[in-house]
């Protein structure tokens, strides 16, 4: 469990779970979780690559990536809180005002 | 090392300091009352100064490279970036000035203008970035403010719904882009775009599927922002639900930033990997323009029609990218169309915003008789629509003409390229259907009344600027084309020959 390739396998599994969540779930928060799972799986893979190659750029990349996804999620949660005030629910299938 | 006096650094400093200054001013200001005009004027000043810096650097600075491929830094001071900066800054200026009227009755002006400036910095840096880390940071700097801006009408459920759709797809697209960048980094061990593209050419053939997966992920990730067809679902909802000035920024600004990133990464990457894969871009281009135009025909709300039309326009621009490896002026034509489309689409959306704030009309039925009620707005909207359709002698014609010409030119080496031109011409004819329909409603049909409405003055100024741009550069298209061809390296085809 100490080889860098093991971390790559875990990253692939995490990406798959994220894609499954995006396809199946309809709750806005769960969708954000799934997207974050994909992004964090990539972070894990980047660190593993950085160790395997070896090169320091991957770890710098991860630091930027973590900070950016935190900012992104903060904005997204804000939007979802406002949506909850309107609909008392965050199921994205409920949001159909724009279809007509 | 980044030179502090290079164009991207200067522009970032100008816009960034003003973007941070506006909220501080707002916090310090104890007086009650709206400061909309003040902030709008400050933001306009900063954007105009940045535009002056970018343009002056092109003409008076030392010889800038066209599209600097071999750059070790994270940003390169080149004409390619400057060209996109000009497009983004023109769009941001049009958005800022028209917001003067649009935001009059709304609150939180400081945050609004500050976010527009931050988003502009992101877009500009995308055009200049030569490193994946920089590209990711710039991409998010562009995207995150626009999520907040799309949700800006807090009390309006429609704006909120638009923002949720935009946010979910936007966050997914950035996750996909990071995934693609992660794969490229794993394969080549570098985050510099050119080094990794070179690394791809010497890749072990067993690892080739991963390289193609990375390119596919980049097409999907950037395609979400560009509004290419399998990834376009959010676009009509967001453009029609978001505040109309923000829809302008999205349709004319962030969409073009997607193209900047795509040219930097995908086109160069595909040329290095294997030229034959550009046929995927060609297939996406055909689907994008056809579905965009068919979608627009069935819509009744003007912002939605404009949104579908911008999907179709992305298809035309993509033709130039798809044939770029085979002909010298595929990318020139695309760049010309990108700048032209930025102005045309901004003009159309700003005109729609003027109609919304003056008579509160969204649907095409309410546009009847607009030629009498709001003559300037109706005139510019009509010219913008004709220009989008590609009617000579407006500027949209030259972009399309050169794109289709380059597709035919590429026919020597790629059997499918002339079909792209045929599809494009047929689609232009199809698109005239709904453009002419809107114009007919405005001028030929009787509206509720013929009372002339007072048109908001800042928006009239923006519209007249756009009208001047569309007509002037339609008749005298030479300078823009020269600028576009300065931005594209001549040795792009040599890159293929070197393979």
What secondary-structure arrangement, pairings included, does this model have?
The complex is a heterodimer of chains A (100) and B (499).
Chain A: H1 4-24, H2 28-52, H3 57-87
Helix pairs in contact in A: 1-2, 2-3
Chain B: H1 7-28, H2 36-60, H3 79-102, H4 109-128, H5 132-150, H6 157-188, H7 193-201, H8 208-226, H9 234-241, H10 244-273, H11 278-297, H12 302-322, H13 330-359, H14 370-373, H15 375-389, H16 395-409, H17 417-443, H18 457-475, H19 478-487, H20 492-497
Write up this protein.
The complex is a heterodimer of chains A (100) and B (499). Chain A has a single domain (4-99), classed as Helix Hairpins (Orthogonal Bundle). In chain A, 77% of the residues lie in helices and 0% in strands. Chain A is built from three helices and no strands. The longest helix of chain A is centred in the last third of the chain and has 31 residues, at 57-87. Chain B is mainly alpha-helical. Chain B has a domain at 276-499. In chain B, 75% of the residues lie in helices and 0% in strands. Chain B has helices at residues 7-28, 36-60, 79-102, 109-128, 132-150, 157-188, 193-201, 208-226, 234-241, 244-273, 278-297, 302-322, 330-359, 370-373, 375-389, 395-409, 417-443, 457-475, 478-487, 492-497. In chain B, helix 1 (7-28) runs antiparallel to helix 2 and helix 3 (79-102) runs antiparallel to helix 10. The mean pLDDT of chain B is 89.
